[in-house]
Design brief:
With 341 residues, this protein is α/β, with parallel strands linked by helices. Helices cover 42% and strands 18% of the residues.
Amino acid sequence: MDVSSHTDRMRRALSLSLFFLLATPGAPPALWSQWEDAPPISAFVPTRPAARPPETTVYDSVAAGSLYVQTHAQALDWRKLFEGTERLVYLGDIHWVKSQKTELASHMGELRDAGITHFGLEMFETDEQASLDRYCENTADARAVNPALERWGWGVKEDLLGMLKAACAAKLKLVALNYSFTEQDEEYRREVAARISDVDRIKNMDRRMAENIVAFMGRNPGARVVYFVGKAHITHGEQAAMLRKAGISTAARLFVDGVDGLSVNRHVLNLESGIRSAGMDRTRISLPAPKDGAFMWSDRSGHHSVSTADVHYIYVPEVLAEAEERRKMSAREFQDSVKLN
């Protein structure tokens, strides 16, 4: 595909992805120059809080993180991880990581067995629902979904197609939950001109997505949905809080991708270092987020409360390895890699 015609959309997507953890908020073009030299996320978090609330735990070292992993990690069981009563379970997409899509494709049956009925997708607009329906009727013919996957970019078209095919084979219904990408491009240009922060841009997008989710849930009262959406919408947005106000319960599942600096009372629990120190870096595990303190995400713009109460992390060695490899790329190498479909 010709990605050059989508420069604005790519900059918008990059600034709203995990990349903006490494870039100055509100300045997407500066992202590339800061890519390799950005300090770790822990550098943005104070090492000691002014005061610590009682009966909370502080995780401020690799040893403490390792202990947390050793005492809380469980063998990765996809069915168990998605069982529950929540009507919508967020599954954080790392847009450019292919192995994540491959991993998901091999576990769609377990999502179904966990009671999931629908697989929601950020990369499809609501008015493209008919295209998803046609694709599931005949997965040998991808013409119905190719335009949306090519528009999405990120060099993962075939990987996403494999994931969609697996979901259809597992009898999960595919659901388009995003709003018009043309509108998003127009909004992005207006917001950049107005110097709207990345976090506020995500909130604006979340409001529109939440409206689509509420409408879908109203039409499908028995649905349990996994929503495959960019990780930033879970860690920096307010979408889940908006849904809870509408009476829709939520949970979140996030892949460990090397930028998982979780701040508990403004202390960092580095999942990547903790997993490796605990000797579990070759094992697929799941890990609940700390519940004994305020669960927050930290970046240069401050500390943002994660708006889902039930947060678990998924650790798959191949996913972390690919994410780390991409971060080692130069700006040009990365741009070239996401052009390939």
